[in-house]
């Protein structure tokens, strides 16, 4: 029974509640005596504030309290933090401006928080918010990534608006590779700014209990323990032991719910001040304005080549836009999560990357699904495609010539790749996509008046962000291990506590499959519990495709401890030595005998350690009662998923409208626990990646107003924008965790943008930037036509 | 959303009686309700006209097609009568918004709102529509005045939209990828003595493109438009499409529409 659970297409245990509208999100929680909060936000991208006058608003009907940055400062509530310290190439630390949860005397992006208005109803809070008078002196905003370093500083003391000037790699060796190159290929690339758009907008409820002096924060978070730590240690909202953070059902995160946000700090603190619950739920436009955004890079890349097609070096210069402030993962995303991946799955002996990260008067950016790796993969896969064209080699052959072939492989930048077989997934993708007949399909499209193009993306990513020793040595403010606790209950069912957090990743099902497999318990009898700091041990949360490789392994380790304790108890009951007892499919069996006990019987015995009537289960000497085990797992390395995506597009020659018409994916995620879940993750990721390539773009005007602040203007892709995705898998298990799992959550967003853009550029014969909107494509087609006529 | 009085009325007379400077008629509410939620529109009274029976329904004769003001887009899109009389109109209705919008939004609401990128105004202009209101009849050419502005007076209620059945017609829309409103929509309708070409999404209000009409009048074929030049002067320009791109699309879509006329 149990042996079939790993790799089996188990339907999601969580589907029933979500598909019948019974999910319980933060906005669904209503507490007795609750108040409603509305935030006064800056309408200006950059301004100084001389006065916040709340006198008229305070007298508005229903108002309970209005709090501003002054109140926050008086109570010594700390600012929001950047969690990862990056050091510039000159040895100086990165520069971060103060980031008070409510503005002190400056605001730095449209949507920046100025005051919280708390009232008996939401409408009353909104009415009163309209009466808060803020005296702004509007200053010239710095908006564009490329302008930041040439503009006056927006924060005092941060010269050139530069957070840091980061260098990774051996510059001398790379320059040498370029001077010995037969050919050098160059590209300038834009990685467009995106807005994550989780289906559930952010929400937070602060609930202070004046009797117990306990503070509870309900919040749509990907990592409640980390939020509690930050709010306790840095914001000084409440001591950790009296502070509970609950992230109940959370409807999508994509990185936008990693941060401990200003709203979390303010509603928690405000609840203490008024001794009533304070509830805030973001409206969609607030999400557009104030959720952390993603990407926003300008990059120049050069690739050194030999005439035979061998790549000998890569050189990258990037300017990354942090937005107005530095958030928790914001500084590591364009550095250590980006630069090491610029080598891709290729055996490139020399590489060097410089990243200048700048402040602007736009919403802060942070990790967004893929976090650094989509940006890197876009650079590598675009330049590799150009290089193959330059050399005149087939895209697949050129890649194969340069793939890493032997494992483990120490890359010239950071990573030591433990396992992989890149030819395997490329070959399988060529077959699944019917690559050999592409030219026929191109002719068929042409007959319909459409231009067809094909694009490749062979990616390598680093998942699981761990081990702690490594990440802390490069500036992480925390270790990135994961925890699990297994409570085997007396009645034979199992409660599993994980420090990972599911906000769409199907942990309830996947983790139950792992425990069911390990302990031989039916998955109906296993409950996965997460998202509440009062329930399980401290955990690091979910991001960076880490839940299975790191959190799943902690569960495996805790299961192993349960089995080891069970073996001792079983041995005593079966009158055998522990080493004579084997555990298989939920049963402890004495070798070469028919003597056995089920794990349920053993659990029961652990809770009734003595003799009472028919029950005869005294525990062995030295064994404690109960069957509860905890494990903290810190892996030895990142995991390294890889894969090949092949995209085909059709372009309407008259309008420029571009459609993805065929999309093939072959991923190597190592061991797959539940293919159904993994396919869902890949579908979602590819959809988001195609979204970046063809549709999505956060657009600020010159004054710093966000033009794409609703679905009227921000193009979220919809189901009719996609063809059916064709999926396949290859597998080389990871060696850094016992499951062999590599991580699948972000691969789609990492691989898809270059696959799509390479296809678009193949179709139209011109280089264009993301998103490839109809007008851009149309203009490129006309340019191409003129160039051809001139030639 | 701020508070308001809600009235559900059974007939036009009752609706008119309740109307004031601070009221709004509510049919599908596809624009009114979001505007209220965003506090862009404030009304003291909302007069729900969905339950007025006479306002909904489709009637067809050999020369005209009459559609009641509260008839939903989905009803127009799936109506056999509409498909038989003016199939392009059913096609237009089928391309408005998404299924949710099509099952709530109404033809009367769409033209009373007169969004510069809405689809129905182009149909009204191209198909020589007469808008029957509670007070009078208004020709489509006099109805659409400016951005979100119509000839309707306060408290005047659209009852029926009467379209003149053409010999053949076609509507081609290039949707905004985000909102699915028209970046450019071109409605071509051919009658015995005239050709009407109405364009939406391009200026502050729907208009007829005389240049294309005159080219088609002498030669009703796509190739007749090859030499037509559309100036982008005065056209809308935004993050989704520049004025030049809109000018380019008018011609592309007009050619497709002529070719697709049936």
- Helices and strands of chain B, in N-to-C order? EHEHEEEHHHHHHEEHEEEEEEEHH
Q: In which order are the strands of the major sheet of chain B placed?
A: 4-5-10-6-7
Radius of gyration of chain B in whole Å, from Cα?
18 Å
| Number of helical segments with 4 or more residues of chain B | 11
Biggest protein-protein contact in the assembly:
A-B, 22 and 18 residues
Percent of residues in helices of chain A comes to: 25-40%
Q: Termini separation of chain B (Å)?
A: 46 Å
**Quick check: average pLDDT of chain B?**
97
Shape of chain B: globular
The largest β sheet of chain B comes out as: 5 strands, antiparallel
CATH topology name of the largest domain in chain A: Aldehyde Oxidoreductase, domain 4
Distance between the termini of chain A: 69 Å
Give a quick precis of the structure.
The complex is a heterodimer of chains A (791) and B (262). Chain A is α+β, with helices and mostly antiparallel strands and 791 residues long. Chain A is 28% helix and 24% strand.
């Amino acid at each position: 029974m149990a042996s079939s659970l790993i790799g089996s297409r188990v339907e999601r245990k969580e589907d029933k509640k979500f598909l019948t509208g019974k999910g319980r999100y933060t906005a669904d929680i209503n507490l007795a005596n609750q108040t409603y909060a509305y935030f006064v936000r800056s309408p200006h991208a950059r301004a100084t504030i001389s006065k916040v006058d709340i006198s008229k608003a305070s007298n508005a009907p229903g108002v309970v309290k209005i709090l501003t940055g002054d109140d926050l400062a008086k109570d010594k509530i700390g600012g929001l933090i950047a969690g990862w310290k990056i050091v510039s190439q000159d040895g100086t630390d990165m520069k971060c401006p103060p980031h008070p949860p409510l503005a002190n005397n400056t605001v730095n992006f449209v949507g920046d928080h100025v005051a919280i208005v708390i009232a008996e109803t939401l409408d009353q809070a909104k009415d009163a918010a309209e009466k808060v008078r803020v005296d702004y002196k509007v200053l010239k905003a710095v908006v564009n990534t490329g302008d930041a370093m040439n503009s006056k500083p927006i924060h005092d003391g941060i010269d050139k608006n530069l957070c840091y000037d980061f260098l990774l790699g051996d510059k001398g060796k790379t320059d040498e590779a370029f001077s010995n190159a037969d050919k050098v290929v160059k590209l300038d690339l834009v990685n467009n700014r995106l807005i994550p758009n989780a289906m559930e907008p952010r929400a937070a409820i602060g609930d202070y209990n004046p009797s117990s002096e306990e503070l509870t924060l309900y919040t749509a978070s990907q990592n409640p323990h980390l939020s509690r730590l930050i709010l306790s240690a840095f914001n000084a909202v409440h001591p950790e032991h009296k502070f509970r953070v609950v992230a109940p059902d959370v409807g999508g995160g994509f990185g936008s719910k990693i941060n401990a946000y200003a709203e979390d700090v303010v509603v928690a603190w405000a609840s203490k001040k008024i001794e009533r619950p304070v509830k805030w739920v973001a409206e969609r436009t607030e999400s557009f304005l104030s959720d952390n955004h993603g990407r926003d890079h300008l990059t120049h890349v050069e690739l050194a080549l030999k005439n035979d097609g061998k790549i000998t070096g890569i050189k990258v210069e990037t300017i990354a836009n942090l937005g107005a402030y530095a958030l928790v993962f914001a500084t590591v995303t364009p550095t250590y999560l980006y630069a090491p991946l610029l080598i891709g799955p290729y055996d490139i002996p020399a590489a060097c990357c410089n990243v200048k990260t700048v402040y602007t008067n736009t919403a802060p950016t942070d990790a967004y699904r893929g976090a650094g790796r989509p940006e890197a993969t876009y650079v590598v896969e675009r330049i590799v495609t150009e290089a193959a064209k330059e050399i005149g080699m087939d895209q697949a052959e050129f890649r194969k010539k340069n793939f890493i072939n032997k494992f483990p492989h120490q890359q010239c930048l950071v990573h030591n790749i433990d396992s992989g077989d890149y030819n395997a997934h490329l070959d399988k993708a060529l077959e699944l996509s019917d690559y050999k007949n592409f030219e026929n399909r191109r002719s068929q499209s042409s007959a319909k008046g459409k231009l067809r193009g094909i694009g490749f993306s062979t990616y390598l990513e680093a998942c699981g962000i761990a081990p702690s020793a490594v990440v802390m040595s490069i500036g992480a403010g925390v270790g990135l291990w994961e925890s699990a606790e297994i409570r085997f209950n007396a009645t034979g069912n199992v409660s599993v506590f994980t420090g990972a957090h599911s906000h769409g990743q199907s942990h309830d099902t996947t983790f139950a499959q792992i425990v069911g497999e390990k302990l031989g318990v039916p998955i109906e009898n296993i409950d996965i519990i997460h998202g509440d700091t009062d329930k399980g041990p401290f955990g690091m949360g979910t991001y960076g495709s880490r839940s299975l490789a790191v959190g799943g392994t902690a569960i495996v380790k805790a299961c192993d401890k349960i089995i080891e304790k069970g073996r001792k108890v079983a041995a005593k009951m079966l009158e055998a030595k522990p080493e004579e007892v084997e555990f298989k499919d939920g049963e402890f069996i004495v070798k070469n005998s028919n003597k056995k006990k089920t794990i349920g019987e053993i659990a029961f015995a652990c809770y009734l350690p003595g003799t009472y009537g028919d029950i005869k289960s005294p525990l062995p000497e030295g064994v404690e009662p109960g069957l509860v085990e905890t494990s903290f797992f810190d892996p030895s390395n990142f995991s390294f998923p890889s894969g090949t995506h092949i995209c085909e597009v059709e372009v309407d020659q008259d309008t420029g409208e571009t459609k993805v018409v065929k999309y093939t994916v072959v991923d190597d995620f190592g061991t797959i626990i539940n293919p159904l879940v993994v396919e869902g993750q890949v579908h979602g990721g590819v959809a988001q990646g195609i979204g970046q390539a063809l549709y999505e773009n956060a657009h600020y005007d010159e004054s710093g107003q966000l033009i794409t602040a609703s679905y009227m203007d921000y193009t979220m892709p919809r189901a009719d924008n996609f063809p059916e995705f064709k999926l396949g898998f290859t597998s080389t298990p990871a060696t850094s965790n016992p499951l062999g799992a590599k991580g699948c959550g972000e691969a789609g967003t990492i691989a898809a943008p270059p696959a799509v853009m390479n296809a678009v550029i193949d179709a139209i014969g011109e280089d264009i930037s993301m998103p490839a909107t109809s007008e851009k494509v149309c203009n490129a087609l006309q340019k191409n036509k003129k160039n051809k006529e001139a030639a | 959303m701020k508070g308001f009085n809600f009235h559900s009325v059974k007939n036009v007379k009752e609706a008119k009686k309740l109307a004031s400077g601070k009221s709004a008629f509510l049919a599908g509410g596809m624009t009114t309700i979001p505007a209220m939620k965003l506090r862009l529109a404030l009304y003291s009274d909302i007069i729900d006209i969905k339950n007025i029976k006479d306002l909904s329904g489709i009637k067809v004769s050999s020369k005209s097609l009459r559609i009641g003001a509260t008839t939903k887009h989905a009803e127009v899109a799936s109506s056999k009568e509409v498909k038989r009389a003016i199939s392009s109109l059913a096609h237009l209705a089928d391309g408005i918004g998404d299924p949710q919008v099509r099952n709530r939004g109404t033809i009367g609401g769409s033209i009373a709102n007169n969004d510069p990128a809405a689809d129905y105004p182009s149909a009204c202009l191209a198909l020589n529509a007469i808008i029957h209101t509670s007070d009078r009849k208004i020709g489509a050419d006099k109805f659409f005045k400016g951005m979100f502005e119509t000839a309707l007076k306060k408290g005047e209620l659209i009852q029926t939209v009467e379209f003149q059945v053409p010999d053949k017609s076609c509507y081609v829309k290039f949707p905004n990828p985000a909102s699915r409103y028209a970046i450019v929509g071109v409605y071509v309708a051919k009658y015995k003595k005239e050709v009407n070409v109405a364009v939406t999404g391009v200026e502050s209000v729907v208009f007829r493109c005389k240049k294309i009409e005159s080219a088609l009048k002498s030669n009703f074929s796509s190739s007749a438009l090859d030499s037509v030049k559309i100036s982008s002067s005065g056209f809308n320009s935004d993050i989704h499409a520049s004025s030049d791109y809109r000018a380019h699309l008018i011609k592309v879509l007009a050619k497709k529409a002529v070719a697709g006329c049936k």
